[in-house]
Amino acid sequence: MTDERERYFRRLRRLRRSARRWSVTAGGLGGTAAVLIPYAGVGLPDAAWAGAAGTAVAMAVWRWIDLRALAAQPAPAPVDPAEAAARSRARLVAAVERLPAGAGVLAEVRRVRSRVALRGTSVAPLWARLDQAALALGGMSGRLTGLAAPVLGQAAEADRSLRELAGRVVSVERALRLAPAEPRSPLADAHRELVEQLTSGVTAYEQLVVAAAGYLAEDSRPTGTEHVAASRLTEATDLLHGVSSALAELRATGPARLRTPTT
C-alpha cells in the first residue's frame, strides 16, 4: 500500500509540471498564430494554428485550476517509520508467497528464526522435535484423506497450543534467571511443571505423526504380495516378449515360404 502523503506530493509535482508544460505550449502556439495570421491572412492553416493555440490555453488553465485545488487541500499526515517498515515487510512477504516455492521458504525462515531465538533455553530441543514432527506430518497431509482427514485440524491446533506453551516456558525461564533467592523456589517448580507438560505434549504429537505414517502405510499396502504397478509392468513386459517372439518367427518363416514350390 503506497504512502498517502507520498502519493499526494507526487500528484502535486505532476500537476505542476503539466501546468508549466501546457503554459509554455500555449505561449508558443499563441505567439506563432499571432505572427502568422496578420501576414498570410486567415486561411485553413491559420485556423489550425488558432485552434491549437486555444486548446493549449484551455489545457493550461485547467491544469492550473487543478493544481490550486490540490494545493489547497491539507497534506496527509506522515506515516510512522515503524508502520512504514511493517507495510514494506508485509508487501515483501506477500510477493515471496506468490512465488512457486515462496511459502516453503518463508516457513523455513520462520523456523530458523524461532530456533535462534530459543537457543540456550530448555525449550530448544523440544522445539526442534516439534518442528521435525510438524514437517513430517506436513509431508503426509496431502494423502491423509477419508477417516484420517480430521487429524490434520487437531494436529494444527495442538501445534499452536504447544508453541504457545513453549513461549510461556521461555518467559518463565528468563524471569527465573532474574528472580531473587526467596521467590525462586515456587517459580522453579512452576517452570519444571511447564517443561513436563511441554515434553509430554511434544511426545504425544510425535506419536500422532507415527500413527499417521502407519495409517498411510496400511492404506497404500496392496492386497497381494505384488504392487499393482509392478504387476502391470510385468504384464506389459510379457506382452512385449510375446510380440517380439512372434515377429522373430515371421521373419524366420518368411523366406522358407518363398522357397516352397507350389503344386
Give the SSE map.
Layout: H1 4-40, H2 44-72, H3 81-97, H4 102-117, H5 124-140, H6 149-178, H7 184-219, H8 228-259
Helix pairs in contact: 1-2, 3-4, 5-6, 5-7, 6-7
InterPro entries: Rv2743c-like (IPR057952)
Keywords: Membrane, Transmembrane, Transmembrane helix
Transmembrane segments: 21-41, 47-65
**What is the number of helical segments per DSSP (H or I, 4+ residues)?**
8
Instruction: Please state the average pLDDT score.
Output: 78
Count all strands and give the number: 0
> What's the gyration radius in Å?
40 Å
Main sheet?
Answer: none
Helix content: over 70%
| Uncertain residue segments | none
Please report the distance between the alpha carbons of the first and last residues: 96 Å
- Beta percentage is under 5%
What is the molecular shape? flat
The structure class reads: mainly alpha
Order of helices and strands: HHHHHHHH
Throw out a few tags for this protein.
transmembrane; Rv2743c-like; mainly alpha; transmembrane helix; 8 helices; 263 residues
What does this protein look like?
InterPro entries: Rv2743c-like. Keywords: Membrane, Transmembrane, Transmembrane helix. The chain crosses the membrane at residues 21-41, 47-65. With 263 residues, the chain is an all-alpha fold. Among the domains are: 4-72; 120-219. The protein has helices at 4-40, 44-72, 81-97, 102-117, 124-140, 149-178, 184-219, 228-259. Helix 3 (81-97) packs across helix 4 (102-117), helix 5 (124-140) packs parallel to helix 7 and helix 6 packs antiparallel against helix 7. The N and C termini lie far apart (96 Å).
